[in-house]
């Protein structure tokens, strides 16, 4: 009986793949590669102000037609500016090559126009149908209920999802999130938005102070108050010339961003460019909150690339040297999480972040956080090259020599991790490490360091031994080599002159 069961199971298992006629999962493009406007894989991806990525010509057509598409999450992107997303394009092309899928071709302007116009008609019809369904379901409501959520709601039971409107424009009625929320939270949002949009400064101050207090004391309101219209009203006040308005509006945003479900919504509402403006020229306390907001938003993986593309890296690096300790710490934490993305690593290197971070490490200021960022930068080729030029090897080995290995173990562990990344694929590391007295330091780390540090130290010791050669081998005098004319022959090989089949490369 048991044997027969096994045979039947094997028979069923082997027939399953052959009977499956669907397209293999490996050939299906990831959903993030698909433009939500064209519905096809992007060939010329561009990132817009609010952080989303679309096909380039589709965005141009939308701007020309004055149309802002409605996204699946019920929000509308900010198409004010667009930047070519080169890193994302490279990711798409590499995926196509790896999975043997034809590379996407850029959509022609006339084709994009037809797609956008079709989408305009579809979304227009969808809103009309949803409005009719909604009105039919709540016939007891008058039209005034749709425009004034400060009135007492007569809806006592949430409507079924099939009869709720998908979304409403900024000039239209309440959204589905307002329908399912309590009467109290709806009235609070309406009251706050009215004050935020007021032309009177004292009412704006009351609005932002109230919003900051509510989102600090009542965590359950953070999601309910994170609506497009409130974020839009808040965004305009974050660059106010009045200190109370600006400081409290940015602080309230930090509170709202603490909820994981709000982070992507906030970036897509175009908040990041405003935070950057605050970092560059806002009041001191507002700058502290802006750095904290970017740190909070950078925790979400979907925001990391967008924040970097929108230009937040340079002001964050600048904030590492500001007078506020809080702003320095939050800026460093934001840069650490943003540097987990390779495209941001390359940008940070080009912005001169390596020299700034190394200077902080040398003076002991923000050393632990600066080291975390440098560990990330050492992973990419550009960062590794600049760090070797900036004498990072000497700096890190110097830190390992000072003091007891048991003290500040996390800092010393990060030093070893950074050195290990620098040693990979680098012909210069051996000589720099030798000048810094690496062998003695690494032996001590391998004996007394943490488990993680021990492993990396042993690998570097082995690597240094292999590159040095066996005992008794002659060391290469690179100065004599430079003067012997060998360099000119190497140069000829690199230019393709002569037989370079046996060349090992550089």
From TrEMBL:
It comes from the Eukaryota. GO terms for molecular function: ubiquitin protein ligase activity. Residues 1-13 have a biased composition (Basic residues). Keywords: Repeat, Transferase, Ubl conjugation pathway. Residues 28-102 form the U-box domain. It catalyses: S-ubiquitinyl-[E2 ubiquitin-conjugating enzyme]-L-cysteine + [acceptor protein]-L-lysine = [E2 ubiquitin-conjugating enzyme]-L-cysteine + N(6)-ubiquitinyl-[acceptor protein]-L-lysine. PROSITE patterns: ARM_REPEAT (PS50176), U_BOX (PS51698). SMART domains: ARM (SM00185), Ubox (SM00504). The keyword Transferase applies. Its EC number is 2.3.2.27. GO terms for biological process: protein ubiquitination. ARM repeats lie at residues 270-307. Pathway: Protein modification; protein ubiquitination. Residues 1-29 are annotated as: Disordered. Functions as an E3 ubiquitin ligase. This is RING-type E3 ubiquitin transferase. It comes from Coptis chinensis.
């Amino acid at each position: 009986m048991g044997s027969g069961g096994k045979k039947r199971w094997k028979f069923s298992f082997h027939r399953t793949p052959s009977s499956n006629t669907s397209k293999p999962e490996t050939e299906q493009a990831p959903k993030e590669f698909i433009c939500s406007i064209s519905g096809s894989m992007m060939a010329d991806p561009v990132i817009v102000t609010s952080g989303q990525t679309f096909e380039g010509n589709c965005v141009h057509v939308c701007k020309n037609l004055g149309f802002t598409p409605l996204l699946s999450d019920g929000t509308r992107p900010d198409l004010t500016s667009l930047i070519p997303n080169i890193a994302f394009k490279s990711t798409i092309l590499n995926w196509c090559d790896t999975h043997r899928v034809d590379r996407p071709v850029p959509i022609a302007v006339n084709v994009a126009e037809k797609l956008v116009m079709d989408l305009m008609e579809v979304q227009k019809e969808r809103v009309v149908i949803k409005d009719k369904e909604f009105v039919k379901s709540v016939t007891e409501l008058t039209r005034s209920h749709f425009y004034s959520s400060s009135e007492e709601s007569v809806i006592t039971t949430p409507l079924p999802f099939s009869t709720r409107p998908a979304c409403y424009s900024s000039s239209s009625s309440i959204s589905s999130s307002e329908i399912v929320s309590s009467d109290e939270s709806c009235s609070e949002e309406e009251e706050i938005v009215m004050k935020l949009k007021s032309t009177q400064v004292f009412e704006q101050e009351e609005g932002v102070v109230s919003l900051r207090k509510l989102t600090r004391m009542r965590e359950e309101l953070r999601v309910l108050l994170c609506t497009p219209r409130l974020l839009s009203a808040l965004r305009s006040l974050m660059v106010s010339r009045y200190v109370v308005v600006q400081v409290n509006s940015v602080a309230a945003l930090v509170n709202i961003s603490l909820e994981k479900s709000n982070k992507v919504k906030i970036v897509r509402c175009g908040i990041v460019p405003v935070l950057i403006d605050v970092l560059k020229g806002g009041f001191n306390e507002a700058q502290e909150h802006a750095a904290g907001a970017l740190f909070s938003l950078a925790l979400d993986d979907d925001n990391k690339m967008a924040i970097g593309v929108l230009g937040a890296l340079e002001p964050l690096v600048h904030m590492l040297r500001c007078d506020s300790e809080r702003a320095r710490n939050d800026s460093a934490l934001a840069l650490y999480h943003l540097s987990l993305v390779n495209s941001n690593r390359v940008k940070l290197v080009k912005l001169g972040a390596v020299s700034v971070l190394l200077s902080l490490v040398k003076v002991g200021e923000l050393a632990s956080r600066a080291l975390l960022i440098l560990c990330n930068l050492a992973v990419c080729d550009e960062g590794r090259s600049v760090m070797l030029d900036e004498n990072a090897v000497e700096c890190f080995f110097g830190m390992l020599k000072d003091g007891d290995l048991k003290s500040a173990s996390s800092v010393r562990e990060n030093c070893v991790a950074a050195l290990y990344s620098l040693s990979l694929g680098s012909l210069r590391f051996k000589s720099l490490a030798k000048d810094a007295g690496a062998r003695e330091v690494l032996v001590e780390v391998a004996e007394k360091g943490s488990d993680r540090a021990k492993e990396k130290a042993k690998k570097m010791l082995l690597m240094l031994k292999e590159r040095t050669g066996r005992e008794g081998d002659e060391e290469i005098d690179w100065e004599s080599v430079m003067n012997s004319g060998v360099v000119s022959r190497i140069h000829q090989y690199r230019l393709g002159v002569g037989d370079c089949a046996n060349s090992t490369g550089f």
